[in-house]
Every structure is written in C-alpha cells, then in structure tokens.
C-alpha cells in the first residue's frame, strides 16, 4: 500500500543515505496487435525502473561515505517485490536501498 504524499511534486523528495528513488516501468495494457490484456496479467510489477534521485551514500565501518552505484536517469533492474512506495497524484514511486538494486541496464 502506497503512502499518499502531501507534496505536489516528486522533486521535493530527496533520498537519504544510500536510498534510491525509482519509478517502475508500467506494464503494457495492450499488445502490439491491439488486443487489450486483462488486468490480472498486468498486476505484477515489471523489474525495470528509472532512477529519479539518489542519496549521497552511507558510511562504511570506518566512517567513510560510500556513494551509491547509480545516478539519476539510470535504468535499473529491481527485485520483483519490495521497496517503500510513495504515491504523488496518480504516479507511484519506490524507495530502495542501493544494495537492493540488482543491476544497472546499459544500452
């Protein structure tokens, strides 16, 4: 269940420590040939997302800040479930820890 935001834009959210703010890709509701897919087949979240914002990083055992591995604009591969959801208007965003992100997608 997503927490309803009290701010007007997602740009107001600045992740802390090693948190990464992402927006998952939306599943297609229609095939290329024009057939509409049932809602039951489009409820599973897609594992890809776009990074919206990142935190500065988290301190390691020695107290040195380790920066996050991704930056805003990167495409990433996420676990099937998880993250903390934030809803702004009709859009849904997720906060993940940097270590929960599975891979960066390069094209």
From TrEMBL:
Which is one Pfam family of this protein?
Answer: Cpn10
So where does this one cross the membrane? none
Q: Which domain of life is it from?
A: Eukaryota
* Gene Ontology terms: cellular component: mitochondrial matrix
Listed A to Z, the keywords are:
Chaperone
Which Gene3D superfamilies does UniProt cross-reference here? GroES chaperonin
- Which purpose does this protein serve, as stated in its record? Eukaryotic CPN10 homolog which is essential for mitochondrial protein biogenesis, together with CPN60. Binds to CPN60 in the presence of Mg-ATP and suppresses the ATPase activity of the latter.
Could you tell me which PANTHER family the record lists for this protein? 10 KDA HEAT SHOCK PROTEIN, 10 KDA HEAT SHOCK PROTEIN, MITOCHONDRIAL
Q: What is this protein called?
A: Chaperonin 10-like protein
């Amino acid at each position: 269940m997503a927490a309803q935001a009290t701010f007007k834009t997602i740009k107001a959210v600045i992740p802390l420590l090693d948190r990464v703010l992402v927006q998952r890709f939306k599943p297609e509701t229609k095939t290329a040939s024009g057939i509409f897919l049932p809602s039951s087949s489009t409820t599973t979240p897609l594992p890809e997302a776009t990074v919206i914002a990142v935190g500065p990083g988290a301190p390691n055992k020695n107290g040195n800040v380790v920066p996050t591995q991704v930056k805003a604009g990167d495409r990433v591969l996420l676990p099937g479930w998880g993250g903390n959801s934030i809803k702004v208007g009709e859009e849904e965003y997720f906060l993940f820890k940097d270590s929960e992100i599975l891979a960066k997608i390069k094209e």
